[in-house]
């Protein structure tokens, strides 16, 4: 048992006139100790300059108060607000968050879970691709973020529902042939996004991809997009969308006069809010915080209700869509 000062737990117990076990409970599980005893232990700890180390707390409670968030990479801008929301919720509940990059490798995901399962209380996982069987076979508290796997609790952003609204908006403007810039290959969410757009538009959708979530991919697809004779384009990712806008400006293609463009998220950190683009407002931070709430419920033995939560999105109509000419 480690302490952060020269004083030991035994010293605190002796000064307070209690056993070491009672002193430990008073500092770590105060609800188990009478108020007068608890106060004597606290006063003794303050007087001696004693601070209880987290590792000792873990031994006493069986909890590390540490959660692990598995994330495919740190380059996709969609993940940053999820991480921020999860970290905020973890800290507000007295826990810490460990972010671990999996490189989208199922083998690495399994290795990391096996390595960390005895060090953390539970897992959150962003795993847009790969077999879901990895998560159904685990016996540790785990919540998936933005993906559903049968039998595994999850929090999913309702981007497909938002794209259905976006498709209806484009149809109302008069667009009859719309491009969807989608990807990457094997993504659980991508076919659902495409289906949502098709459902709302009720006209022809031309799918491009799979495309990585990068600025370069958005720029490189423009020539093929313009040759398709689509009057509007929807990018699944904001970095892709910015690359698209950049290349269109280079070519002198006027937005939205010559081509309406919109995006499945409006991550303000990438400038879409400044551009006043037509996009979906995606509260990704809410997805991260909700996932933490769910996994902590499982850690505490409470079955998450509901097991699958949906985070709504909002269509924001900006200046990048208009009636086709």
From TrEMBL:
It comes from the Bacteria. One of its GO terms (molecular function) is transcription cis-regulatory region binding. SUPFAM superfamilies: lambda repressor-like DNA-binding domains (SSF47413), Periplasmic binding protein-like I (SSF53822). CDD domains: HTH_LacI, PBP1_LacI_sugar_binding-like. The keyword Transcription regulation applies. InterPro entries: HTH_LacI, LacI/GalR-like_sensor, Lambda_DNA-bd_dom_sf, Peripla_BP_I. Keywords: DNA-binding, Transcription, Transcription regulation. Transmembrane segments: none annotated. Residues 7-61 form the HTH lacI-type domain. Pfam families: LacI (PF00356), Peripla_BP_3 (PF13377). The keyword 4Fe-4S does not apply. This is LacI family transcriptional regulator. It comes from Saccharopolyspora hirsuta.
């Amino acid at each position: 048992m480690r302490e952060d000062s020269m004083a030991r737990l035994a010293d605190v117990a002796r000064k307070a006139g209690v056993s070491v076990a009672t002193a430990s409970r008073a500092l770590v599980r105060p609800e188990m100790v009478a108020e007068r005893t608890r106060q004597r232990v606290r006063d003794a700890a303050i007087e001696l300059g004693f601070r209880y180390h987290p590792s000792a707390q873990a031994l006493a409670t069986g909890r590390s108060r540490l959660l692990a968030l598995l994330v495919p990479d740190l380059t996709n801008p969609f993940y940053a607000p999820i991480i921020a929301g999860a970290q905020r919720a973890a800290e507000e509940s007295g826990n810490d968050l460990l972010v671990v990059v999996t490189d989208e490798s199922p083998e690495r995901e399994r290795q990391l879970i096996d390595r960390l399962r005895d060090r953390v209380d539970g897992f959150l996982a962003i795993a847009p691709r790969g077999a879901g069987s990895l998560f159904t076979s685990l016996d540790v508290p785990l919540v998936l973020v933005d993906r559903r796997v049968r039998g595994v609790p999850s929090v999913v952003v309702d981007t497909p529902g938002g794209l259905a609204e976006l498709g209806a908006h484009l149809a109302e403007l008069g667009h009859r042939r719309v491009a969807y810039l989608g990807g990457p290959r094997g993504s659980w969410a991508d076919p659902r996004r495409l289906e949502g757009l098709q459902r709302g538009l009720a006209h022809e959708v031309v799918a491009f991809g799979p495309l990585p979530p990068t600025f370069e991919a958005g720029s490189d697809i423009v020539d093929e997009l313009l040759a398709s004779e689509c009057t509007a384009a929807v990018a699944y990712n904001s970095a892709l969308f910015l690359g698209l806008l950049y290349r269109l400006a280079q070519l002198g293609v006027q937005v939205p006069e010559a081509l309406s463009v919109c995006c499945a998220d409006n991550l303000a950190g990438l400038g879409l809010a400044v551009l006043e683009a037509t996009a979906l407002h995606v509260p990704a931070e809410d997805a991260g915080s909700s996932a933490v709430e769910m996994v902590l419920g499982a850690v505490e033995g409470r079955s998450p209700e509901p097991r699958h939560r949906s985070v709504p999105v909002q269509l924001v109509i900006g200046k990048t869509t208009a009636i086709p000419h």
